[in-house]
Amino acid sequence: MSDGGGDFGGGDDGGGFDGGFDDGGFDGGGSEGSFGGGGGGGGNTVQGMCCACLLGLLLYPAALGFTGWNEKRAVCRAKVLWTAEEEAFDLDCNDNEAHGLQQGDLGYLNCPLDNATFQQYTEENSFFSGLSGVTALFGSPVSAAAMSMEVQMLVCVEYCAKEACRRRRLEEIDEQNESEIMAMGTAEELDWNATDEEHETWQPLRRLRSHSSSSSCRKECVEWGYKKEWSKTLGASGFKDNGRAERACGRPNPLSAGNGLSLGTHEDHAPSGQVRTDGGAWRLNDAQMKMLPIDVSVPAVAGDQSFQQAGVQPPPALNRGNTLVSQGTLLTCTAEKVGCLRVSFMKSAPKTITMLGAISDQPGMMSEEGWQPPDGFLCKSQQPLNRICPKKFEFDLLRGGTGCNEGPTRDELFATMKSENSTTTWLYRLIGFLCTWLGLCMILCPITTIVEMAASMLDNITACIPGVGCMVDMMTDMIVGVVQSLICLISCMCAVSSFFFVAAAMWMIMRPLIAIPLFLVGVCLCGAGCFFAHKGKDHSRDRHAKMHDGDLE
Q1: How many C-beta neighbours within 10 Å does residue 282 have?
Q2: Does pLDDT of 17 surpass 50?
Q3: ∠492-497-500 over CA atoms, to 5°?
Q4: Would you tell me which of 35, 42, 312, 371 could form a disulfide with 385, CB atoms 3.0–4.6 Å apart?
């Protein structure tokens, strides 16, 4: 753990007793290592310890509150699904007035879609703004419930090609010669970095040690690299090294995609009520249309006109002469050049639709707001139920990850939603437990920090004593390791107990008919364990008493 040899006597740093450690050591006057503050790591270590402890005091109760909220959310969501499974009406694909349904009733529908009611997409649609000059883009109109268009541009990207870890106390030194820099300490490495073609300097590097302060070593990028890559956003307009960027990429990044296109992924859906089921009895509303996954590739079709790459990229206007098709993707270049565009297309065209939601006031349509479940004990204002399949994957704080494939039966749909609730519950439980454990570790971190600082001080005090310093160093390393392991174990045990206590308390409140019997069983098992342990001690005591009596006889 010692960072360097001690210097007993009057040194350049101010005389007195220099322990030789810059990260919070005992320095008799140096600018960096005064114990308890100054410019070095000691003060920063104490500040970090205090900040971590305060954050732990906030994180620990917040994690327990999150755990309790998750258990409440899981129970309430399960009740909603049970109620919905019992109350949902099976709707008729050809009749939207069967069962005498009223507005707000929950209905389940599983029917084939009439693809004749899909939207017809061509390059003339306003959605494909900027592509109207590319005639017969798809060959024939694309029939789909929704389509997406992804526009990417080849841009010049900057990245860090080389990093150096600069020592803080030497950042201002830029004119000292090699011998002066090497005399700064034995714990430093020197890395020859050419920062300029005509000027080279030594950049001192410092080893990152387990007990060093992060503030004494700062990573900096000393060399920038540049490459071309496809992006859905505009590239940077300026770089750290414009000359190298131009040599690597050929030209600056364009300021816009031009030609009426905008970079990114864009979606378009058929209007609300246009897409119908077979027979025309039921229609999809706007919210349901936006839930549909757009996951089927639509290839662009090559034209008859010969391709000639435009000299300026991106071209001011796209047409069949300055575009080509490769593997179904529309391109403006054959060679990689900054500013080149590529455009790809996807569609949504499901054959069947499964819907679960509330009947709206419009005949043959479900409400966009969804079915509002009834309030229950501690379960008020629950999130409405509005589900269709197929559905693209989405993540919601209350429901977790939701998504489903095409054509599930009623039982399969509810099984999927129950599985989603269970998965989300266990995911949140894991997050809650880890945050609880982390909060306790942060609360107890002052103990570990104080032990480390004391061990580091002892290491540096004894470092100058031959044959003793290395032994003390090994012993302090062992002591610090044992303390860290004990703190980790204690915080884990406390986290487990507090986590289970909060979860059990919520189940006692939310589901007492299940939680109370389980609690009683647990108490009985604990009592039985204590009873048998006590009996075992009695038998052992009687056995020793008999052996003692036999010896006396």
Answers
A1: 25
A2: no
A3: 120
A4: 371
